[in-house]
Design brief:
Blueprint: H1 7-21, H2 62-70, E1 73-79, H3 84-90, E2 94-95, E3 120-125, E4 131-140, H4 141-164
Antiparallel strand pairs: 1-4, 2-4, 3-4
Length: 185
């Protein structure tokens, strides 16, 4: 579909048409397409830090991430709130030790006396106003991929049920999800 004319282009065309009707030759309007640059042609903009200090708060080096992936580990950062660390440990996650990280880890808390050499980040305050920490943990990639596949299978079943107009909960209305005569294609 062709691009719509700008108001200036429309005015130039109308003027050219009127001039043509009266025998006056006017320069023709040339339509130029905008230049689309490739990502490689764009100038590299320097990464800037915002004033509130949120840049890279939970960051380890890309090289360390690559090394863990090559060794068969998936990394995840868990906040130490509402039993998330205990849940992660019960699911097979392990703490990442500082000795496993080759690069410099920004915001890793020194004086980490409670949990020894585990990698942790201060991420804010909890409900009581005390410091809230997040811990870097790892799990074998094969286990993580199996968990992701199980999650995707569950989502696929729910998606199929929604598209079929059936409710996934037993004992609920047989009319299904939002049955108001709306069909999902």
């Amino acid at each position: 579909m062709p691009r719509a004319d700008t108001p200036q282009e429309k005015m130039e065309k109308i003027t050219a048409q009127k001039n043509l009707e009266h025998g006056v030759l006017a320069p023709t309007v040339e339509r130029t397409m905008p230049v689309i640059r490739k990502a490689s042609d764009r100038p590299v903009r320097e990464a800037r830090n915002v004033f509130n200090g949120t840049k890279g708060k939970l960051k380890i080096s890309d090289e360390d991430i690559k090394n863990f992936a090559e060794a068969g580990w998936h990394l995840h950062i868990f906040n130490d709130i509402d039993g998330r660390i205990e849940d992660a440990l019960s699911l097979g996650y392990e703490f990442v030790e500082r000795s496993e990280i080759g690069g410099v880890v920004a915001n890793v808390v020194d004086g980490n006396t409670d949990l020894g050499t585990k990698v942790r980040f201060r991420v804010g305050t909890d409900r009581s106003g005390d410091g809230l920490f997040a811990y870097l943990m790892k799990i074998p990639t094969s286990i993580w991929e199996d968990e992701q596949q199980a999650l995707q299978d569950k989502n696929t079943l729910i998606d199929k049920a929604i598209r079929a107009g059936k409710n996934t909960k037993s004992g609920t209305s047989p009319e299904g999800f939002y049955n108001a005569g709306i069909k999902i294609n």
